[in-house]
Specification:
Blueprint lengths: L8 H24 L3 H11 L10 E4 L7 H10 L6 E6 L3 H4 L6 H11 L7 E8 L2 H15 L3 E3 L2 E2 L3 H12 L4 E3 L2 E2 L13 H20 L1
Helix pairs in contact: 1-8, 3-5, 6-7
C-alpha cells in the first residue's frame, strides 16, 4: 500500500463540506438547464484531459471495453509506449462460471485482435474492486518496475476523478497522463442528448465528491 499524507482533520472536513455543496448546486443546475451552450460549457469546465507523450506503459483500468483498449493499442502502435498493462479486477459470478469473460480477459482479447503482441501485455493488481484499488495497484507496479511515466486513458467525465486518484496514489514520483476519451455512446459536444451521457455526467460528479471525501 502507498502511504498518502492527509490534510489536517478540521480543514479537510471544511473542504469536503464545501465540495459536497458545490456538487449539489452543480447537479441542480444540470437538471434546470435547457440551453445547449450552457450544457456544453458545463462539460468543458468539468472535463480534464492530458496531452500524451512517450511513456513507460499504458494502463487500462476495468471497464470502458469499447474505448480504453482501442486507445491503448493506438498509443502502442504510435510508439508512445512499449507495454500495455491490464488491471486484474474482482471477478463477478457470471465470469467465475465462465459465462462471460472478465474485464481483464475481454481487454486482453481486444488488444490481441488489434495486433498487440503477447510480449507487450502485462497485468497488475489482484482483485481490484474500484479505481482506488487500481490506482494503488498501479503505484505498486510502477515502484517495482521503476517506471517514470504512465498513460491511463479513460472517458471524458471520469477523467477528473481518475487523474485525482492517480496523483493521490503516485504523488510526484511518476508522471501521469490521463487522456479523456469520447465513449461511443456520447460526445462532449452533445452529451446531454443521450440518457447515457446525462447519467454518466451526474454519476461522475457524485463519484468525484465521494472519492475526495473517502480517500
Amino acid at each position: 500500500m502507498v502511504a498518502v499524507p492527509l490534510a489536517p482533520r478540521g480543514r479537510l472536513w471544511r473542504r469536503r463540506g464545501s465540495l459536497a455543496l458545490l456538487t449539489l448546486l452543480l447537479l441542480s443546475g444540470i437538471a434546470a438547464w435547457e440551453h445547449d451552450p450552457l450544457l456544453r460549457a458545463a462539460a468543458d469546465l468539468w472535463i480534464v484531459s492530458d496531452p500524451v507523450s512517450p511513456a513507460d506503459a499504458v494502463a487500462i483500468f476495468g471497464g470502458g471495453i469499447n474505448d480504453r483498449p482501442f486507445a491503448a493499442a493506438a498509443y502502442y502502435h504510435a510508439g508512445l509506449a512499449p507495454k500495455i498493462l491490464l488491471s486484474v479486477n474482482r471477478v463477478d459470478a457470471a465470469a467465475q462460471l465462465g459465462a462471460v469473460p472478465s474485464d481483464t480477459e475481454a481487454n486482453h482479447q481486444v488488444l490481441r485482435k488489434l495486433g498487440i503482441p503477447e510480449s507487450a501485455i502485462e497485468t497488475f493488481g489482484a482483485g481490484s474492486a474500484n479505481t482506488h484499488d487500481e490506482a494503488l495497484a498501479l503505484a505498486k507496479w510502477a515502484l517495482q518496475a521503476g517506471a517514470h511515466s504512465l498513460i491511463v486513458p479513460t472517458e471524458i467525465f471520469s477523467a477528473r476523478r481518475v487523474r485525482w486518484m492517480l496523483h493521490r496514489a503516485l504523488g510526484d514520483r511518476v508522471t501521469i497522463m490521463v487522456p479523456a476519451l469520447d465513449p461511443p455512446e456520447y460526445r462532449r459536444d452533445i452529451w446531454w442528448q443521450t440518457d447515457q451521457g446525462m447519467i454518466a455526467f451526474q454519476n461522475e460528479v457524485l463519484k468525484y465528491v465521494y472519492y475526495r471525501i473517502r480517500y
